[in-house]
Amino acid sequence: MKKITFAILIMAITLAARAQSGTNSPYSQYGFGVLAEQTSGFNRGMNGLGIGFRYNNQVNYINPASYSAMDSLTFIFDAGVSGQLTNFSENGVKKNAKNANFEYAVAAFRMFKNAGLSFGILPFSNVGYNYTSSGYMNRDKTSGYVNTYLGDGGVHQVYLGFGVEPLKNISIGVNASYLWGEYNRYIVNSYTDVYINSLSKHYSTDVRSYRLDFGMQYTLPIGKANTLTLGATYGLGHKLNADAECRILSTNSQTGVKDSTTFIVKNGLEIPHFIGAGFMFNHKNKMRVGIDYSLQKWGSTSFPVYSDNGGRASYSLNDKYFKDRHKITVGGEYCPSITSRRFLSRISYRFGASYTTPYLDINGEDGPKEFSVSAGFGIPIINGYNNKSLLNISAQWVRTDSKRFITENTFRINIGLTFNERWFMKWKVE
Q1: Are 391 and 346 in contact (CB under 8 A)?
Q2: Strands 244-251 and 198-222
Q3: What integer pLDDT is reported at residue 430 of this predicted model?
Q4: How many CB atoms lie within 10 A of CB 424?
Q5: Could you tell me the end-to-end alpha-carbon distance of the chain, in angstroms, rounded to an integer?
Q6: What is the C-alpha separation between 414 and 407, in angstroms, rounded?
Q7: 8 Å CB contact between 263 and 289
Q8: How distant, in Å, are the alpha carbons of 107, 122, 422 from that of 425?
Q9: Residue 255's pLDDT is what?
Q10: What are φ and ψ of residue 52, in 5° steps?
Q11: How many CB atoms lie within 10 A of CB 352?
């Protein structure tokens, strides 16, 4: 019970940490923002791979069916942080930005034979940007403008998951989550010509809803030393019962008189159906390799968009705002010998690479696609009373670009610490 209380306390601290944005990306001004990578420390070393992976000493949130593999003597608590440096470039102009973020906190333990329980907190999306653009409205450069764009917030997620193996080698599981959070986006248009009114737009919404994700795994023995695990996941798409608001404020530069208009789209946000499939080949518990494919059906959802055609302003749902998001990931890990007395032989060496298609349609153009690679280590923490805890460290490079918009190159360091039950053992002396 003390272990669970400790984990919940750490997650409560994480709730406050999640209030800070984990991105500086201008792409977060669209849709739900930058979609988060919902993975633990060991997944990140393999660039997010995990639909077919089963461990008895790691929390694999990606597929809740994996919880059934929890060791009977194991209580796991895993928390992670990241730091990143991003280079933005557009039309020959470059700029750097730094971020540090508390990424996740998850826990899992065995409930009874062939059944495990997990709970934790993860990000769903992040919004964070602040930039300006300026220019002139006429050829003689006597009338100029400055457009300011800024936003913050995001959607967070706490979950409770359960996995069970009802039949030999077949496991099923479910994650039930609560989504909450808000975002604020501002666009301010100001002019040097006092005869032109300044105009500001404030977009805001407050999300309070649920999410359900299901998983299945089938493990096929291949000979005496190898196994092949096939995995599948499905996330339920639905409306979030969140109202989207757009407030327009026009200010007369000469008199200071303000005129405001507010638009509200009732129940204007929704999440799509999530579908995933993957496999993991396990060779003698030394080498694990796999491939994941995921599809997020964003193209079947709508999003509220402001438009002003000929002075007729409106704020309404647009069913062409998103595109279906496809992602494919390959990767694996190698551990020479988990029981070896040699420290280097007990380290897990990980790698992975992914390609992700755009999920945004920006003014009729495809939004950014992503290509990323990662490498990492699972380092055992060894002392006189514990040899099961792990320090997961990985480095990741992500390139986000499109043909007409900003290109982002991000270098990210992820650090996750997996505590094992034995960290909380009580010793008796007779």
Answers
A1: no
A2: antiparallel
A3: 46
A4: 13
A5: 25
A6: 22
A7: no
A8: 17, 27, 5
A9: 65
A10: -100, 5
A11: 26
Exposure b/e, 249-268, CB count within 10 A at least 16 = b: bebeeeeeeeeeeebebeeb
Structural tokens at position 303: 């999003």
- Helix, strand or coil for residue 24? coil
pLDDT (tens digit per residue) in 152-194: 999 999 999 999 999 999 999 999 999 999 999 999 888 777 6
DSSP 8-state class, residue 322: B
Say if CB 119 and CB 161 are below 8 A apart.
Answer: yes
User: What are 291's two structure tokens?
Assistant: 């491939």
Angle (CA) 104-105-106 rounded to 5° is 120
The amino acid at residue 376 is G
Is there a contact between 81 and 231 (Cβ–Cβ < 8 Å)? no
- Are 240 and 271 contacting, i.e. CB atoms less than 8 angstroms apart? yes
Q: Looking at this protein, which amino acid is placed at residue 11?
A: M
Classify residue 425 by its DSSP letter. P
Task: Report how far apart, in Å, the C-alpha atoms of 147 and of each of 30, 77, 202, 226, 253 are.
Answer: 17, 46, 14, 60, 16
Backbone angles phi, psi at 44, to 5 degrees: -65, -30
Query: Shortest CA distance to 125 belongs to which of 245, 336, 284, 269?
Result: 269
> Residue 308 and residue 331: Cα distance in Å, rounded?
47
The two three-digit tokens of residue 427, written as one number: 């010793």
CA 94 to chain centre: 26
3-state class of 2 per DSSP? helix
Whose tokens are 């602040």? That residue is 130
Q: Give per-residue pLDDT as tens, 238-254.
A: 999 999 999 998 877 66
What is the biggest distance separating any 2 CA atoms in the chain, rounded to whole angstroms? 92
Nearest Cα neighbor of 146 from 184, 196, 96 is 196
pTM: 0.88
Structure tokens at 102: 């508390």
pLDDT tens column, 13-65:
455 444 445 678 899 999 999 999 889 989 999 999 999 999 888 899 999 99
User: Which tokens in the block code for residue 19?
Assistant: 């209030």
Q: Taking Cα atoms as reference points, which of 240, 89, 113 lies closest to residue 168?
A: 113
- Helices then strands, counting H and E runs in the chain, come out as 2, 23
Q: Which residues of the chain have pLDDT under 50?
A: 1, 9, 13, 16-20, 423-425, 427, 430
CA atoms of 400 and 88, how far apart (whole Å): 10
